[in-house]
Design a protein that fits this description.
The chain has 22 helices and 20 strands. It is of the alpha+beta class and 706 residues long. Helix 3 packs parallel to helix 5 and helix 20 packs antiparallel against helix 21.
């Protein structure tokens, strides 16, 4: 499509558009990180589009104002870097974009063109530092092709301007015969071949990930990870198909389109009057995982092996929280790329058992969780009494001014029951008696009572909040838990947990088993509901991004070793099969037949392509002896003039050579003029040029130059 657009385009126009395209691709490689800021996201595209239209009015004017603005920007950004408020890589990138904006408005000379190409190279490098994700890869591919076009056309443009007179250069630059689709496709193919060579070096060359160069990422607030729940919000809960977790499970679950599993983030125990928030005690649980309670340990010994979850938490969403699959985590191992300088990721446990990690690093967090999912049977949980340890006191606090109807309902559902049976009764009643909706009720004086007795419909946070209050009124410790529910199978082989799968449920403390999960939300309301085309597109894109990340971004010494070992095994297996296949054996004959058919197909394709190119190529008349002698004479004359102080390139025409000789060696001008006219007459006019006359012309030129 680009080639069609450039068909019949002048060299001057094609060169400027190729340079702009390369610069735009480099800017896009930085912009996909989302860190440049809205001002630059407006200024650069505006300059890229408007500068060619308004450049004649602005170029070369207001230089003092431009210089002052750039100087002010440098001072402000430098101060922010020194103060620690701005990352130095981001500051350098932003200043490079400002320089590009300035040059786009004042693009008038050879220096400007080369400077813009240099800035594009700086920006593509900055894009790799800001965000090396799949979108950057696509921008880099576009930049590779566009920059190859820009370099070739820029060099050609200025070579023509240097070798020809202004009139001749203008005629060539405004001509429409130099930039053709064939030229552009050939340059694009050259760029792709270069990329393939770079990829081979990338795979084979020893490499180390420089963890010390990693930059801190900005967290994205997302449902399921916040430290509070607000039940007074108004509107409709929007589904969000963005992937927040990529999970691989061992043992793998039964084949299904969706994964029925909860992913725990945080426990919220303190009632605020409008919702819940986390306990203010902060860190108090240490850096180790507590052992399994006695009843859970006995259940784990009776059941199958624990669940092992290989998890990648997507950058910007985790906010320092370690999400774990439902069950009791017994081991967490952080997986980091091999780095020259890398600070180890540490596990932190809050007083209520929530898990966090530090430092909150850039990039996706990769860790492996070992979880015991087995729960004691209800009979084992009964009769354990109601003597609770002091650490669960926060889960027994009853909100002030509880509606009498809530107390009455709690008594009706829990009176005379063991805590485990009471929790099951409340869970069952909420699922069967109330309806799920994604509509938020807005501000209510008592959101729990309004949900239970007036609207009788709500979202998962209302279901879990109601169950917590009903159990606490009955002196049973319970707390609200946030996280995600579900997961969708990806084409890349992992389970994708999406932001729209945010969920809330309940944990009830039962002596001997610790906090046990209960989910009062109807099954239809758990997890996301978006199954449309956009959700499928987002999931497919995430699969591609995951493959890019595994093959490129996270490619380290370990990955390199595995890749080379796999290549070695493949070659070894091929050699073993060839060695074992004797001539005459069926395997040998089949392999030889396939190889022969492949070679014959390739040869036939090459012959057809060469024949097609020969037919498409315009026929050029063969030179006669006088024309060939004229070409040879001009090459030798040009060499003599170069040694005599007249600078000439292969692109300089004989007439231009006469003009330059008159300026620099006027004593040799008559000989050059006589020789040039003889060359032109023989090469294009059909006149004879005997060998003796050619030698005489060259001797005369040599004599005048001495």
């Amino acid at each position: 499509m680009i080639a069609r657009a450039l068909r019949g385009t002048t060299l001057m126009t094609a060169q400027r558009w190729a340079g702009s395209l390369a610069l735009g691709a480099a800017f896009a490689a930085c912009a996909v990180s989302g860190e440049l800021g809205s001002a630059l996201l407006f200024l650069f595209p505006a300059a890229l589009v408007a500068a060619p239209l308004l450049q004649r009015r602005i170029a070369g004017r207001y230089q003092w104002a431009w210089t002052g603005l750039l100087g002010l920007a440098m001072i402000v950004q430098g101060a922010q870097v020194v103060a620690g408020r701005l990352d130095i890589v981001l500051a350098a990138t932003q200043f490079a974009v400002l320089l590009a904006v300035h040059r786009l408005w004042h693009r008038s000379s050879r220096r400007d063109e080369w400077f813009l190409l240099l800035l594009s190279l700086l920006l593509i490098c900055a894009g790799a530092a800001l965000s090396a994700e799949l979108l950057f890869g696509l921008c880099f591919l576009l930049y590779s092709v566009a920059a190859t076009w820009a370099l070739a056309l820029t060099w050609l443009r200025f070579e023509i301007e240097a070798a020809r007179s202004p009139e001749q250069a203008a005629a060539l630059l405004q001509g429409r015969r130099l930039v053709t689709p064939a030229v552009l496709f050939a340059l694009a193919a050259l760029a792709l071949v270069g990329l393939l060579g770079s990829a081979a070096i990338f795979v084979a060359f020893p490499r180390v990930t420089l963890g010390g160069l990693r930059r801190a990422s900005s967290a994205i607030p997302i449902a399921g990870l916040g430290d509070q729940i607000d039940l007074s919000r108004h509107g409709v809960i929007a589904d969000d198909p963005r992937v927040v977790l990529r999970v691989r499970l061992d043992p793998p679950p039964a084949p299904a389109a969706e994964l029925p599993m909860r992913w725990r983030a945080r426990a919220l125990e303190v009632w605020t009057g409008r919702g819940w928030r986390a306990r203010p005690e902060g860190w108090g649980g240490g850096t180790w995982l507590p052992p399994l309670p006695r009843l859970r340990l006995a259940a784990a010994r009776r059941h199958a092996a624990p669940l092992v979850a290989d998890i990648e938490a997507v950058s910007g969403f985790s906010d320092g929280v370690v999400l774990t699959p439902e069950g009791w985590p017994t081991g967490i191992t952080f997986q980091r790329p091999l780095a020259a300088r890398a600070s180890a990721t540490r596990l932190l446990r809050a007083a209520n058992g929530d898990l966090f990690y530090t430092p909150v690093d850039v990039g996706d967090l990769h860790y492996v969780v070992r979880t015991e999912r087995a729960l004691p049977e209800p009979d084992e949980l009964r009769g354990r009494g109601t003597r609770y340890p002091p650490e669960v006191a926060a889960s027994l606090e009853v909100p002030a001014d509880v509606d009498p109807r809530v107390r009455s309902l709690s008594q009706r559902l829990t009176e005379g029951k063991d805590p485990v049976d009471a929790a099951a009764a409340v869970e069952r009643w909420l699922i069967q008696s109330l309806a799920y909706t994604r509509e938020l009720p807005g501000e209510q004086k008592d959101p729990i009572a309004h949900f239970l007795f007036e609207s009788r419909r709500g979202h998962c946070e209302l279901f879990s909040s109601a169950m917590v209050v009903l159990l606490r009124v009955a002196s049973i410790p319970a707390r609200n838990v946030t996280g995600y529910y579900g997961g969708v199978r990806s084409s890349a082989g992992y389970w994708a947990v999406r932001a729209g799968d945010a969920h809330s449920w309940v944990e009830v403390y039962l002596p001997g088993a610790g906090f046990v999960p209960f989910d009062p939300t109807p099954p239809s309301g758990r997890g996301g509901v978006d199954r449309g085309v956009w959700s499928a597109v987002v999931l497919a894109w995430d699969g591609l991004a995951q493959r890019w990340r595994a093959l490129v971004v996270d490619y380290d010494l370990v990955s390199q070793q595995r890749t080379l070992q796999q290549i070695g095994r493949t070659l070894g297996e091929a050699g073993r099969r060839l060695t074992a296949a004797r001539p005459g054996a069926p395997e040998f004959r089949a392999a030889a037949a396939r190889a022969g058919a492949g070679a014959l197909s390739i040869a036939l394709l090459v012959v057809l392509l060469r024949r097609a190119r020969r037919r498409a190529r315009p026929k050029v008349a063969r030179l006669d002896p006088d024309q060939r002698r004229a070409q040879a004479l001009w090459r030798r004359a040009r060499d003599r003039l170069e040694r005599g102080g007249v600078s000439l390139t292969a692109a300089v025409s004989p007439r231009e050579a006469i003009r330059r000789t008159v300026q620099r060696r006027p004593d040799a001008a008559p000989a050059v003029e006589q020789l040039a006219f003889a060359v032109l007459a023989a090469r294009w006019g059909g006149e004879r040029l005997p060998a003796a006359r050619a030698r005489a012309l060259l001797r005369e030129l040599r004599r005048d130059l001495h």
